[in-house]
Write a structure and sequence with these properties.
six-stranded mixed β-sheet, alpha+beta, 453 residues, Chloramphenicol Acetyltransferase, globular, OB fold (Dihydrolipoamide Acetyltransferase, E2P)
Amino acid sequence: MDVLMPQLGETVAEGKITQWFKSAGDAIAPGDNLFEIETDKVSMEVPSTSAGVLTEIRVAAGEVALVGAVVAVIADKAGAAASLPRDASATASAPPAAKAAPAATGAPSRPSAPPVPAASLAPPPAAASVPIKLDPFFEVRTPERNYGPARLAGGTRVTPLARRLAAQGGIDLAGISPSGPNGRIRARDVETALASGKRAAPAVAGPSADQIKALYRDVPFEEVPLDGMRRTIATRLVQATQTIPHFYLTADVEIGAVITLREQANAAAPKDADGNPAFKLSVNDFVIKAWAAALRRVPAANAIWAEDRILRFQHSDIGVAVALEGGLITPIIRSADTKTLSAISREMKEVSARARERKLKPEEYQGGASAISNLGMYGVREFSAIINPPQSTILAVGAARRQAIETEAGGVAFASVMSVTLSCDHRVVDGALGAQLLAAFKRCVEQPVTMLV
């Protein structure tokens, strides 16, 4: 049976094997961890659901493999192993000429054989193991989830091989008519486009790495190679700034009532036998709850752009930026508008810890209509954040400060104030709607009891 590289999320096209737990010749039992993979977002262990002997490791530790590639082979104890040909499991580390050869010769670039069994990449079920099957279009399915081809905007599915060939050939997938099952774009469609001479519009190229380094040849410097996370962040943020029409709204929010309520809640938190409180709320927990409540009260803003339509959501799924070594990730607090402050606090602590260990699952950091980026703990007073597609808004939160304000009676008093800046996708949220959303957030923070009822 073939062991395949899984697809951990719609946008993940490859993974790096960081460690093998088994060696060739080792006996394998269902549930045994085979290897650990690392993508731009997460790191996870991949178990087997098949019993047998690990007869071959095709992708060594430290190497990168494309989604759907065969990384190892497990034979039954009798020694028989049904395996795809090696050329059907090309990895990302293969020479470019070898990858481009199918498109140049017109030969089939994927196996046309019927589906064959493969070792499962999901945790084993309690009953008999269920093998994953690799179909001719490299779509990997389990009963629980689908690791199938990524989608284009608008919902068109694309097989990983077709996406790779299109990238190599400079083909715009949006202009290709799909011929695969269920309207998929497959490698044959890309080859047809290549043969017809279709090409994407050339990108405006900046200076090369050598040209940039030449400017600093007399200055000592250290070269830091890009890892998967930093490369993905760079790609997605360039995409966001080029394709999302941003505009920004800034407001000052008094947080004195939140600070008082937080102190009271923490003081009243129940304690266990050792005297440890059941929860300890932060100001950020109140910000998450207030932002979720604001999105619920302005439902037109709780939406995303989906090319030919707008998707509006019933609940507030909030992404919260968490800084990691070498980058950041935004785990999603699902239905934050329906959760208590203590539940939000516990969930944030738990997902933040796993995010820093790169142990989040794709469904834990993908999706959501909006996000929060809080740099207040670093003393940043005010900033604007870049929207993380497909989300349509992001709230940038600055540090609290003491500031003189005018009272209703015309006097002067000091208050705790923080500045927040809302970045909006103008295709979904126009100026007036963004102002309503920011005003709803301001009311929730300045009168926090209103977001608790």
